[in-house]
Amino acid sequence: MTLTRSEDGPDPSGRPNPSSGGLNSSSGGLYERLTEFAGRSAATAGTGKDPVNLPMIRHWCEAMGDDHPAYRGPDAVAPPTMLQAWTMGGLSGHTARSSAHEELFALLDGAGYTSVVATDCEQEYLRPLRPGDEISFDTVIESVSALKTTKLGSGHFVTTRTDVRAGGQLAGTHRFRILKYAPAARRRGPEPTPGTETEQPAGGLAAEQRAKARRPRPVVNRDNAGFWEGVAAHRLLVQRCGDCAALRFPWLPGCADCGSPEWDTVEASGAGTVYSYVVMHHPSFPAFDPPYAVALVELAEGVRMISNVVGVPYDKVRIGMPVRLEFLRVDEELELPVFRAGGED
């Protein structure tokens, strides 16, 4: 996502800033009030609702497709990236949040920044967590940004840092950043026919519909550029470790099994089965037509990837359903790998 500083008030042409949704963070000293929350506690002496435990580790590893032996057996440790899982409040909510946290979010909501999206997190690991560890944590509000404009809308980034302890000893830190924003106004246009948008070629859409239905661009970087080059050539490429030959997906700069940075690729056959799935009903984005199925597909090669299931109504998708890879052109610039139900060529 490209972020730029939003200027309060009119733009250089004298027109109001349309991306701000009519909101002005300097009005009434809002930004000054927001910055007063930096350094204040968002949670004090919080405790994990459960100690570190093997069942939760097992569910995590199954969902992630991580079968590393360090996470099994009598000497198991928890995957480091589970750090946040031990502090989450769950459906019943958090019990240790401070009044400052509630006041900050009430202030943003009252100013019209009522939507929220997580943007990124950073973690630092100081010691492994083991089954039986009792978790405690403290969270501080590190910063609230000046008004920013994104494609979602204008708002403020709120960054918090959580120090996670096991038996009173610091085990890691989790820095989490969200955007509290006012959604940008959307241009009204003809609604797509339900159930057809994900499979209708871009050339069959009117220009206005095509602009409205333009999907977000995938993030292409030096670690995954080869994957997207393969997609452009209608090839689904899976990384293979140059030392231990383990296959991995998504693409990573090193092997999770042996740590080797050496790798090459193998082309997937395209056959797979639905390992798990969800049906997306909300929120509704302009490029998508809910409800639709998003599946975790297990390829015949043993790795898993997330994509859409097409060719069958969303409520007919089932775990274990055979699927077959195909490439869907969603607009004049972008093709994506999807999976057609049935698994037939």
Structure description:
By secondary structure, this protein is mainly β. Helices cover 12% and strands 33% of the residues. It contains five helices and 15 strands. The strands form three sheets. Strands 1, 2, 3, 4, 5, 6 and 7 form a seven-stranded antiparallel beta sheet that branches. The N terminus is likely disordered.
Q: Structural class of the helix and strand makeup?
A: mainly beta
Order of helices and strands: EHEHHEEEEEHHEEEEEEEE
Q: What number is the mean pLDDT?
A: 84
Helical segment tally?
5
- Report the radius of gyration as a whole number of Å: 23 Å
Element layout with pairings:
Elements: E1 4-5, H1 30-35, E2 41-47, H2 54-64, H3 99-110, E3 115-125, E4 135-144, E5 148-149, E6 153-166, E7 169-183, H4 207-212, H5 225-232, E8 237-241, E9 247-248, E10 263-267, E11 271-280, E12 292-299, E13 304-310, E14 322-329, E15 335-341
Parallel strand pairs: 13-15
Antiparallel strand pairs: 1-5, 2-4, 3-7, 4-6, 5-6, 6-7, 8-9, 8-10, 11-12, 11-14, 12-13, 14-15
Features:
345 residues; mainly beta; 5-stranded mixed β-barrel; 5 helices; 33% strand; globular; disordered N terminus
